[in-house]
């Protein structure tokens, strides 16, 4: 009865995870094979989807799509490489948005941690800010931006997308960092007080390290939010080149090619996972500060 | 004795005079809001900014009052989809967490799916959902809202279920208590603050995603469609009035969830009662 | 609270706990084994107060957990009132209190005390009467409607003890129940426990790392050593005839003498004479 090694545990997890994905694919195919063509309708409401190839393409068709040319005019470029290009494009915008969001969110958190009045005045609005439907203000952001010319530099649609991504990304950082900065024990705060350390040095010496366990999940959430914001903003601004716009374009051609719109959707999932994974790497660097992290 | 110290700190926090609490929780944000709106109005007036860039709060408000019946109608349409989505998503999320908590294999199998669903912009699924469920019905919108809700509810519920203290679990074991009693007396009360944290996050998300799903097609009866229609006919104050309506709708969902939470979980651990993720 | 004493299930051998040759081996990482308990023989008579004392890692808590059916021996056997530990748990033959009070934060004090009664389907009105009795016993009648977070640590621990006594068990298992309390509260709680035990006549298995506490409370003190967890000696600590366990006893010659004896055993040789209270 020895404890299993880390590798064995990892292998079990990977195996079960793959099993989970396969189970979903199996469920999809099983329902497609057995369910009625018109879907399951209860009281005139479609509760389960239609099962035609049009509505639910086969899983293997979706995967096969990646290796096929985008369209008859595009020559050699496959759907796979087109999606990859779009993903890289979107990932860059999301990263910019994430960075802006983290800086803004963290600054707000420090402000709120320093002044309790700032917290009570601002926190409700920060929460409220996330109930604003982003897509509604996306065209406005672009219009505001188009008024900005500084020297030779002009505001582009890419900048608008990044700003909108930042708008979603700052929220988890602000809330998570605030909780983290407030997390040190009273004992430790008393200790800092006894050392005659001022608030700002206490921030660096105590509050900042103590906030790491709260900050990392917040950064991960912010990464996912930034990706979501990027994709949605690309759609509503109509910016070409990214995976968001691609979902719409491919969906319009779904009539003749139902498997095609799934390719950029998988691409979007990939972008999100890469973004969250990259933040996970930051967590590895900060490992000493993560002892006693709440999982 | 850091434990005693934090206990004391929490006790003083609880005992803060009501007057003080009123000021910081209600008056301070209200003042900030009024100041911001005032400044906004001032800037628009002084610099004579065109409505297509940003309309003044005053013009938005008058549009809001003029079109309140159609805004109300839109709120009902979007709100209904969001509500169904919230209820379905919450039920599935809680159920899924209960299953994953009981069966370790399912928990591990769900990991990549949960990871994928939490990073994919669910609204991007709207186009394929419309083809799957039909573009004439609201089903796709409800499903978009439900999918958005499932993840935070599932993740938080699962976390809550894992917070059951060893002492409490052992106590129930020593009492030879039946599983149903353990769930009722220990597991659910322990998890409930976490479930509500998930629901609180999910509540306004449900509204936003139901609204955004309207941009991708479907019948014309919600706020999302109304916003695009107003914006495309260059009636910007009206578009903003609809945005205001959607904010109010999101806020209503959030507040109702909060009120339910306050009623249900009054004496659970105080640290989870603040805004959290 | 008298029904425990008139219970028809009279123990066959007059023993509350009988452990013979009990061993517990934990599997560590990479094939290492930790022997938590090795060949433990112990009998606790009905109504007897027995303390387990020793440094951390000596297996005293493990032994108590085995009695409570929270853990299982890897060798030897252990019975509670002549039954298997599993059966004793199902029959609810014992009450238990942990180092942490372990109260449910969302229940009032009264509802916490009534929890075991509720688990076992005692009717609401009977429950109420019993809870009132218990709260009076631990002196918390005024706090019935309070919530645990409104009580001090000592009060919470008293609630936990009341809860352990709820079903008038003939055996009480206590795992460092006063470990987190300050010295003054602790002595007061000890005095209360002595009173409660004499009123209920329950046997007690009491885990502690405080020598004076063990000597003050117990009829016998079981001294244990770690790696592997073993009993090295059992010291009789009953006050001689004519002495009661009260504050006077804390200043008595024999009290110090027994403390010195236990300490000697724990340190593996004679040590400087005891000075009493500062030892914990």
Report on the architecture of this protein.
The complex is a heterotrimer of chains A (295), B (277) and C (280). Chain A is globular and about 75 Å long. Chain A contains ten helices and four strands; from the N terminus they run αββααααββααααα. The two termini of chain A are 27 Å apart. Chain A has helices at residues 6-34, 59-65, 79-114, 116-129, 134-145, 157-181, 186-194, 199-237, 243-252, 262-285, and strands at 40-42, 45-48, 149-150, 153-154. Chain A is mainly α and 295 residues long. Chain A has a single domain, classed as MetI-like fold. With 277 residues, chain B is an all-alpha fold. Chain B has a single domain, classed as MetI-like (MetI-like fold). Chain B is built from eleven helices and no strands. Chain B has helices at residues 2-14, 18-47, 57-66, 68-102, 104-119, 126-133, 139-161, 166-174, 179-213, 223-232, 236-264. Residues 1-17 and 268-277 of chain B have low confidence and may be disordered. Chain C has two domains: 1-93 and 177-280, P-loop containing nucleotide triphosphate hydrolases (Rossmann fold); 103-168, no CATH class. Chain C is built from nine helices and ten strands. Chain C has helices at residues 60-67, 85-90, 109-113, 115-119, 124-137, 153-165, 183-200, 211-217, 253-267; strands at 15-27, 33-45, 49-53, 75-80, 83-84, 94-97, 171-175, 203-208, 220-225, 230-236. In chain C, the strands form two sheets. Chain C has a six-stranded mixed β-sheet with strand order 6-7-8-3-9-10, sandwiched between helices. In chain C, α5 crosses α6 and α8 packs across α9. Chains A and B meet through α1, β2, α4, α5 and α6 of A and α1, α2, α5, α6 and α9 of B. Chain A: It is a multi-pass membrane protein. Chain A: Belongs to the binding-protein-dependent transport system permease family.
């Amino acid at each position: 009865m020895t404890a299993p090694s880390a590798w064995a545990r990892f292998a079990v997890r990977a195996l079960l995870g793959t099993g989970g994905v396969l189970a979903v694919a199996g469920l999809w195919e099983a329902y497609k094979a057995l369910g009625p063509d018109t879907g399951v309708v209860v009281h005139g409401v479609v509760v389960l989807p239609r099962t035609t190839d049009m509505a639910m393409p086969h899983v293997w068709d979706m995967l096969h799509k990646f290796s096929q040319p985008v369209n008859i005019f595009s020559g050699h470029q496959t759907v796979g490489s087109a999606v990859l290009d779009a993903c890289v494009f979107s990932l860059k915008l999301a990263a910019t948005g994430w960075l802006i969001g983290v800086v803004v969110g963290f600054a707000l958190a420090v402000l709120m941690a320093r002044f309790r009045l700032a917290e009570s005045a601002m926190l409700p609005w920060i929460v409220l800010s996330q109930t604003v439907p982003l897509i509604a203000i996306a065209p406005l952001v672009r219009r505001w931006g188009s008024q900005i010319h500084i020297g030779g530099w002009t505001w582009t649609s890419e900048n608008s997308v990044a700003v909108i991504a930042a708008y979603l990304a700052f929220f988890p950082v602000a809330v998570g960092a605030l909780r983290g900065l407030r997390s040190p024990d009273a004992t430790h705060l008393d200790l800092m007080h006894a050392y005659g350390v001022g608030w700002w040095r206490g921030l660096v010496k105590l509050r900042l390290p103590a906030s790491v366990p709260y900050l990392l999940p917040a950064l991960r959430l912010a990464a996912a939010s930034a990706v979501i914001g990027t994709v949605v903003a690309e759609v509503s601004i109509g910016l070409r080149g990214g995976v968001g716009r691609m979902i719409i374009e491919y969906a319009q051609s779904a009539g003749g090619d139902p498997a095609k719109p799934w390719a950029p959707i998988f691409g979007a999932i990939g972008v999100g996972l890469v973004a969250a994974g990259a933040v996970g790497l930051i967590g590895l660097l900060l490992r000493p500060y993560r002892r006693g992290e709440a999982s | 004795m850091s434990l005693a110290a934090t206990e004391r700190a929490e006790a003083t926090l609880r005992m803060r005079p009501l007057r003080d609490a009123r000021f910081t929780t209600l008056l301070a944000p209200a003042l900030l809001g009024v100041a911001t709106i005032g400044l906004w109005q001032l800037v628009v007036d002084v610099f004579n900014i065109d409505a297509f860039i940003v309309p003044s709060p005053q013009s938005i408000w008058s549009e809001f009052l003029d079109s309140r019946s159609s805004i109300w109608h839109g709120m009902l349409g979007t709100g209904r989809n969001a509500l169904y989505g919230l209820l379905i998503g919450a039920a599935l999320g809680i159920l899924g967490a209960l299953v994953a908590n009981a069966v370790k294999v399912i928990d591990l199998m769900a990991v990549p799916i949960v990871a994928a669903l939490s990073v994919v912009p669910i609204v991007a699924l709207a186009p394929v959902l419309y083809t799957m469920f039909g573009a004439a019905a609201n089903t796709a919108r409800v499903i978009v809202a439900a999918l958005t809700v499932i993840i935070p509810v599932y993740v938080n519920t699962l976390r809550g279920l894992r917070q059951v203290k060893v002492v409490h679990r052992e106590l129930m074991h020593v009492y030879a208590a039946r599983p149903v009693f353990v769930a009722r007396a220990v597991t659910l009360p322990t998890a409930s603050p976490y479930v509500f944290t998930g629901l609180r996050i999910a509540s306004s998300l449900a509204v936003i995603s139901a609204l955004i799903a309207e941009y991708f097609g479907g019948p014309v009866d919600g706020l999302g469609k109304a916003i695009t229609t107003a914006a495309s006919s260059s009636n910007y104050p009206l578009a903003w009035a609809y945005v205001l309506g959607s904010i109010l709708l999101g806020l209503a969902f959030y507040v109702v969830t909060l009120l339910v939470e306050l009623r249900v979980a009054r004496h659970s651990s105080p640290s989870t009662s603040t805004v959290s993720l | 609270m008298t029904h425990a004493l008139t219970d028809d299930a009279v123990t066959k051998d007059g023993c509350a706990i009988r452990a013979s040759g009990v061993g517990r081996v934990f599997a560590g990482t990479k094939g290492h084994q930790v022997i938590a308990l090795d060949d433990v023989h112990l009998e606790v008579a009905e109504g007897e107060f027995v303390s387990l004392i020793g440094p951390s890692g000596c297996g005293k808590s493990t032994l108590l957990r085995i009695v409570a059916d929270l853990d299982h021996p890897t060798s030897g056997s252990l019975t509670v009132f002549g039954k298997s530990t599993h059966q004793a748990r199902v029959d609810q033959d014992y009450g238990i209190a942990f180092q942490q009070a372990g109260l449910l934060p969302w229940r009032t004090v009264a509802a916490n005390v009534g929890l075991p009664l509720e688990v076992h389907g005692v009717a609401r009105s009977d429950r109420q009467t019993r809870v009132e009795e218990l709260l009076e016993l631990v002196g918390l009648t005024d706090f019935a409607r309070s919530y645990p977070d409104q009580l001090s640590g000592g009060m919470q621990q008293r609630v936990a003890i009341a809860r352990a006594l709820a079903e008038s068990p003939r055996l009480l298992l206590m795992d460092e129940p006063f470990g987190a309390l300050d010295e003054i509260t602790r002595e007061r709680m000890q005095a209360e426990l002595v009173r409660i035990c004499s009123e209920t006549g329950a046997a007690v298995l009491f885990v502690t790392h405080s020598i004076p506490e063990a000597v003050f409370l117990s009829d016998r003190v079981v001294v244990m050593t770690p790696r592997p967890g073993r009993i090295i000696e059992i010291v009789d600590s009953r006050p001689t005839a004519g002495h009661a366990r009260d504050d006077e006893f804390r200043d008595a010659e024999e009290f110090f003498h027994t403390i010195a004896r236990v300490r000697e055993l724990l340190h593996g040789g004679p040590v400087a004479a005891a000075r009493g209270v500062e030892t914990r």
